[in-house]
Amino acid sequence: MSEAVSKRYADALFQLSNEKGTMDQWADELLVLKTIIDDNDTLMPFLKHPRISLEQKEQFINDVFRSFSEDIVTTLHLLATRHRLDIVPLVIDHFIRLVNDAKGIEEGTVYSVRALSQGEKERLEQTFAKRFGKQAIKLTSVVDPSVIGGIKLRIGNTIYDGSIQGKLNRIQRNIGAVN
Q: What does the record list as coiled-coil region(s) (predicted)?
């Protein structure tokens, strides 16, 4: 249920940002908000606490997020009024996905046994942007010793596994299929 509701809020924010020409600004602000939520374990429990009045929550939102766009703050007030502040991270994720789709950007994750250099990451982004027919691909690098060597790339629902562990798994499956 919260997935569908969060998509509706994200769609409304996206349409409004598109009309006002503030898409990039709002995307940046919402990413900052998501970082604040992720980095602060007490923020959401405080905002959802039943003993904190709506007026206190709204005052807190005004004080903490006063540098944010008025429409973002208004959305937070609306979500507080409707007791839906718990879906804020989902709304942000959906909004960012809509912005990326509008700009032809895809996000993905690259897994490697060591941290990739900026140059290696950029080459992967350029190569896979062409392969996916996107303007750009933004990759998040994750160090994963289980890949043993090579890389594993996840973009959307597609996984490209060029890792040694992946090759060993394929060999094992092929040997099992022969027996």
A: none
